[in-house]
């Protein structure tokens, strides 16, 4: 672990968390980073801190550049604990002249740390502070990812410190986008967007318009997670525009859970039907695939098809998990249908159809229920369902 120069007198001083595997329900299979940035000027400023158990790495990294007690300003772009967890120790060590945060940030800091004595100074969109040769402009970004969130834009450096936005949960030794395979990086950014920011897509659209209207000149984007966009900031901005408009393609995600493999056989037949209509299919077992990988695939899919065996007059529990999680993230503009096998009562398809409506997925087929094990005719019903959904998806895409 070492401090890394981002630009002249601007350093990454954060921490790499190689081993975290769960981030409030999101599978962080490649770990993450908690980025903090140190700016050395007439005033020394630290932008965000790190998760509590990495505070010594943060302090060690700062020491490589300067004595932490020479820091004048702490800037809290976001109060979630992965960024503010080390704040109490930093305030104690640094004794900052000021701690800058948004109005919501002040409320959140007080309700997290209960320290009325901290020198909190509230800033709003457009406010600027001088560090000497540098100007920091603040932009409130409510709900990206919490009500308190804000960006800090270093005008002269054309550097946007973007908090959670434009991040990836990806632990690497490299700190910059051009040191990594871009396709892989974009895949991690898509997973991050699908699982954290999808629900806030209308706000992302609003923010992108606001940033455009402000005429911010962006050379680099430095998020609080994952590599810094040094060479390809345009790529991540274009992707956020696409993802927040919920742009979809001819792709279908079939999510299912099965009891004795009958619903699984149905899922395969549904996928065959979708493929016959030219859909790019992802067949995902709720038992084998993590919910956050399923949402990543749903991000740019036009069709979502749900399958479940009936269990105790209901659906399989893992499907309930996926449905609850998907509903919370509010994907828009999808079409879908449901299927499932049953032994005697067979309520799963009825529940899945209700779930489609609840999530906001347009149901384009009544669904297929098969008693026990599918026979030749049942396979054909499932293929027909897949084809019907595929046609509906393509028609909807053609109209868009
Ligand atoms: Fe990386 Fe919303 O915290």
Describe the model.
The model has no long low-confidence stretch (mean pLDDT 97). This protein has helices at 55-63, 81-84, 87-94, 103-113, 182-197, 201-214, 233-244, 262-276, 291-298, 317-329, 348-359, 376-399; strands at 4-7, 10-12, 15-17, 22-23, 26-27, 32-34, 37-39, 45-47, 73-75, 98-101, 120-122, 128-130, 135-140, 150-154, 159-161, 220-222, 249-257, 280-285, 301-308, 310-311, 314-315, 335-342, 362-363, 368-371. It is elongated and about 75 Å long. With 400 residues, it is of the alpha/beta class. Strands 1-2-7-8-9-10-11 form a 7-stranded mixed beta sheet. Strands 17, 18, 19, 22, 23 and 24 form a 6-stranded parallel beta sheet that branches. Helix 11 (348-359) links the parallel strand 22 and strand 23 (362-363). The protein has 2 domains: 4-244, 4-Layer Sandwich (Metallo-beta-lactamase, Chain A), CATH 3.60.15; 253-399, Rossmann fold (3-Layer(aba) Sandwich). It contains 12 helices and 24 strands. Bound molecules: MU-OXO-diiron. Residues 78, 80, 82-83, 145-146, 164, 224-225 line the site of MU-OXO-diiron (FEO). The site of MU-OXO-diiron has 9 residues, from helix 2.
Describe the structure in brief.
The chain is built from 12 helices and 24 strands. The protein has helices spanning 55-63, 81-84, 87-94, 103-113, 182-197, 201-214, 233-244, 262-276, 291-298, 317-329, 348-359, 376-399; strands at 4-7, 10-12, 15-17, 22-23, 26-27, 32-34, 37-39, 45-47, 73-75, 98-101, 120-122, 128-130, 135-140, 150-154, 159-161, 220-222, 249-257, 280-285, 301-308, 310-311, 314-315, 335-342, 362-363, 368-371. It has a 7-stranded mixed beta sheet. Strands 17, 18, 19, 22, 23 and 24 form a 6-stranded parallel beta sheet that branches.
């Amino acid at each position: 672990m070492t401090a890394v120069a981002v630009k002249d007198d601007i350093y990454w001083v954060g921490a790499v968390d190689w081993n975290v595997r769960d981030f409030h329900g999101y599978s962080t299979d490649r770990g993450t980073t908690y980025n903090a940035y140190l700016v050395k000027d007439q005033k020394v400023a630290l932008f965000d801190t790190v998760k509590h158990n990495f505070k010594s790495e943060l302090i060690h990294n700062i020491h490589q550049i300067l004595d932490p007690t020479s820091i004048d300003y702490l800037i809290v772009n976001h109060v979630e604990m992965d960024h503010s967890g080390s704040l109490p120790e930093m305030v104690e060590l640094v004794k900052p002249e000021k701690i800058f945060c948004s109005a919501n940030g002040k409320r959140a800091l007080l309700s997290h740390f209960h320290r009325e004595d901290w020198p909190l100074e509230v800033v709003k969109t457009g406010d600027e502070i001088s560090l000497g040769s540098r100007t920091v402009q603040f932009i409130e970004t409510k709900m990206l990812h919490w009500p308190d969130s804000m960006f800090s834009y270093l005008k002269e450096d054309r550097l946007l410190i973007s908090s959670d936005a434009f991040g990836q949960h990806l632990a690497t030794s490299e700190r910059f986008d051009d040191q990594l395979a871009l396709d892989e990086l974009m895949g991690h950014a898509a997973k991050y967007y699908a699982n954290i920011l999808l629900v806030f897509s209308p706000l992302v659209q609003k923010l992108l318009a606001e940033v455009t209207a402000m005429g911010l000149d962006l050379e680099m984007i430095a998020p609080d997670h994952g590599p810094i966009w040094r060479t390809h900031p345009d790529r991540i901005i274009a992707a956020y525009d696409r993802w927040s408009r919920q742009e979809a393609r001819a792709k279908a995600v079939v999510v299912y859970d099965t009891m004795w493999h009958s619903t699984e056989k149905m899922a395969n037949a549904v996928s065959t039907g979708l493929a016959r209509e030219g859909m790019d299919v992802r067949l995902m077992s709720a038992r084998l695939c993590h919910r956050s990988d399923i949402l990543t695939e749903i991000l740019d899919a036009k069709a979502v098809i749900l399958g479940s065996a009936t269990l105790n007059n209901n659906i399989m529990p893992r499907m309930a998990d996926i449905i609850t999680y998907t509903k919370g993230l509010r994907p828009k503009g999808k079409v879908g249908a449901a299927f499932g096998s049953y032994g005697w009562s067979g309520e799963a398809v009825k529940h899945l159809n209700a779930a489609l409506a609840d999530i906001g997925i347009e149901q384009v087929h009544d669904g297929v229920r098969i008693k026990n094990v599918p026979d030749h005719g049942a396979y054909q019903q499932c293929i027909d369902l897949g084809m019907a959904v595929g046609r509906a998806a393509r028609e909807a895409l053609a109209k868009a």
